[in-house]
Design goal:
Blueprint lengths: L5 H5 L4 H14 L5 E2 L11 H12 L12 H12 L11 E4 L1 H13 L5 E6 L3 H9 L3 E6 L10 H8 L5 E5 L11 H11 L6 E5 L15 H4 L7 E6 L12 E4 L2 H14 L5 H12 L3 H22 L14 E2 L9 E3 L2 E3 L2 H12 L1 E2 L1 E2 L9 E4 L4 H16 L3
Parallel strand pairs: 1-12, 3-4, 3-5, 5-6, 6-7
Antiparallel strand pairs: 2-8, 7-8, 9-14, 10-11, 13-14
Length: 399
């Protein structure tokens, strides 16, 4: 009998897209749906990005490009990351990919053999587990509940690394929680990391420009420069520049890792298209007014969401300081009913909220935390306020 590869059986469809597709279907049926589900920035890049793409189209060479990425694009990326403190890298430390997800998939293939262990905090971005399972890696979860503001402690990290995982994967600012680690918190974790030289460190920091309250972005190599030979930094144009569909990801890493990613690119994607490259170059090197303005708007949206959720009795809402997510603990609703429907868990709550109020959120179980749900708050302010009103109404109606 013909069979597919075993790894296909380990692959699962995105839980986030399941919610998004249901919301889309209900909207097509005429329902008034407000979606807080998809993690997209909901704005378009500046006009200079489109102009660069048009010019590239007019002068398209039709040739293959570099597996690593064009020199101009890599130079722009290096200047971009220098602005947040990631200095001392060269083109040889860099590579591009088809979005951050494509970069992460390549990195896991480069670093993990089947059976190797990868450790990361919970809550996590859904694809961490999905990719690791496809590749047959052992997953070591480090639970970080709302009671510790969804942040990893040095003691947890020390205990985890003592088990000798091949890779430690870290996300800051965090999707789904929006949490940002302070300079002191990063330094404390870095002090632990230096004691375990046999573990690679991936920092998935694609929201590094979306940080609020003056807390700033910090990386382990800033605290302990000797970690540079093990830290692999990921970035993307998707969130910062409103370009998720353009699929432009980057990595800055030790040269041996960057070269391995280039080799993987030569087998997977060959190169980024010229038009995409031109758009990314314009985004990184051109005016930054659009992302700067959106950062201000997102901080205002964050404040609205947190204020609304904290006004709901029983809901626990740690204050996020980055990205564009809020991740409240809504377990106070478990065991209650809404319109006769039992709310037994986060999935029940999200389904009932969508059916009754037309508000789509992603259940926390998709991110490894079944006591919560994720709200992505990038929609227009009027929709945000209406969605929050409906959520408050839903909780008030629980019995």
């Amino acid at each position: 009998m013909l069979k597919l590869a075993a790894r296909v059986g380990r692959a699962k469809p995105s839980a986030i897209m399941v919610v998004a597709e249901k919301a889309k279907r209900l909207k097509a049926e005429g329902r008034d749906i407000i979606s807080f589900s998809i993690g997209v920035p909901n704005f378009l890049p500046g006009a200079h990005v489109y102009e660069a793409a048009r010019k590239a189209l007019e002068h398209d060479s039709g040739q293959y490009g570099s597996n690593r990425g064009s020199d101009a694009l890599l130079d722009a990326f290096l200047k971009h990351i220098e602005q947040v403190g990631m200095t001392g890298y060269t083109r040889r430390n860099c590579a591009v990919g088809i979005g951050a997800k494509g970069v992460l998939y390549n990195l896991m293939e480069v670093l993990l053999d089947e059976g190797d262990a990868i450790a990361f905090p919970t809550p996590y971005w859904t694809s961490y587990v999905d990719i690791a399972e496809i590749l047959g890696a052992q997953i070591q979860l480090l639970p970080c509940p709302a009671t510790q503001h969804y942040k990893l402690t040095p003691a947890q990290l020390d205990a985890a690394l003592a088990q000798k995982p091949k890779v430690f994967l870290f996300n800051n600012p965090s999707n789904p929680t929006g949490m940002v680690y302070s300079r002191d918190e990063i330094a404390a974790l870095a002090d632990v990391l230096v004691r375990y030289p046999d573990t690679w460190i991936i920092t998935d920091d694609i929201y590094n420009r979306m940080v609020f309250d003056g807390v700033g972005y910090h990386n382990f190599v800033m605290a302990r420069p000797e970690l540079r030979e093990r830290v692999i930094f990921m970035d993307s144009c998707s969130k910062t520049y409103g370009m998720p569909g353009w699929r432009i990801g980057f990595v800055a890493a030790p040269e041996v890792v960057a070269n391995a990613v280039v080799t993987m690119n030569s087998n997977h994607i060959t190169n980024l298209p010229e038009i995409t490259t031109a758009a990314a170059l314009a985004a990184l090197a051109g005016p930054q007014d659009v992302p700067a303005q959106k950062n201000i708007e997102f901080q205002d949206h964050r404040d609205r969401v947190v204020a609304a959720l904290k006004a709901i009795p029983g809901v626990v809402c740690p204050q996020p300081q980055g990205a564009f997510y809020v991740f409240p603990d809504i377990s106070c609703a478990f065991g209650k009913t809404h319109d006769g429907k039992l709310i037994g868990n986060d999935v029940d709550l999200c389904n009932a909220l969508l059916d009754a109020k037309g508000v789509a959120c992603v259940p926390g179980v998709a991110f490894g935390e079944p006591r919560a749900l994720r709200i992505s708050y990038t929609c227009p302010a009027n929709q945000l306020d209406e969605g929050l009103r409906r959520i408050r109404e839903f909780f008030a109606e629980l019995k």
